[in-house]
Every structure is written in C-alpha cells, then in structure tokens.
Design a protein that fits this description.
10% strand, globular
Length: 126
C-alpha cells in the first residue's frame, strides 16, 4: 500500500511543487510569460496541450521561432495548425531527451546535474 508523504515536523500532507488542475497559478508564472515573445526556440515536452493557460503558450512565440515537440502524440497546434519550422519527435520522452542531449554534446553536464540533484534528494548536499 502506498503511504501518503507527510512533513516530519508538522505531520501535514506534503504536496509536490506542481499546480493541480483548478488551482491558481503562482505569481511567478506571469513573470515568465513575458519571455515567450523574445524566445529563439521553444521546447515542449510530455504534454496534451489541452489545459489552459499552458495550452496556448506554444502560440506565444513569434511565428519564425522553431518549436520542438517531444511527446508520445502530436497534440495541439502541432496537429491542427503546424508551422513550417515545427519539429516533432514522437516516442518516449526520456529517451528522446537523452538523444537530444547526446546530439548537443551535453551528456557529461546532464550526468553531473543528475548526480547533484540526486545528492540533494539523499540529503548529501553541502
């Protein structure tokens, strides 16, 4: 049986750092929306592109900006209104990201980052 994670101090239920459907987005979200018109590339990974406001973010970049969808399925505007510079990589998201990292020559950096974050989770960070 799965155990509900609880805070070791107050015993309250721990909530992941995500926004659940129907919840209000954090204020910091609005700060980053302003970045989209300045983007040179948009990466979209593992999504249905059905829930707003995230569903429309793929349209927030200039039409000349390449958009890369890494997903199991073609979704949203990639399905019904693709742009000429769109790229779609279908399949397992983790495998596709690993392949992209390899092609960009970032394998060592990714491994270092994974190790650092794993150490944080294990309580070994400085």
């Amino acid at each position: 049986m799965d155990k509900i994670p609880r805070c070791p101090v107050c015993t309250g239920v721990l909530k992941p750092d995500i926004v659940f459907f129907g919840e209000t987005l954090p204020q910091r979200f609005l700060l980053h929306v302003l970045d989209f018109p300045m983007a040179d590339l948009l990466l979209i990974l593992g999504t249905s592109l059905e829930v707003e406001p995230f569903a429309s973010l793929s349209e927030a970049v200039r039409s000349s900006v390449p958009r890369l969808l890494i997903n199991r399925d073609v979704v949203g505007p990639f399905a019904w209104c693709p742009r000429s510079r769109d790229v779609v990589q279908l399949g397992d998201v983790v495998h596709s990201v690993e392949r992209l990292v390899e092609l960009l020559g970032w394998r060592e950096e990714l491994q270092d980052l994974i190790q650092q974050e794993t150490e944080k989770l294990d309580g070994r960070d400085g």
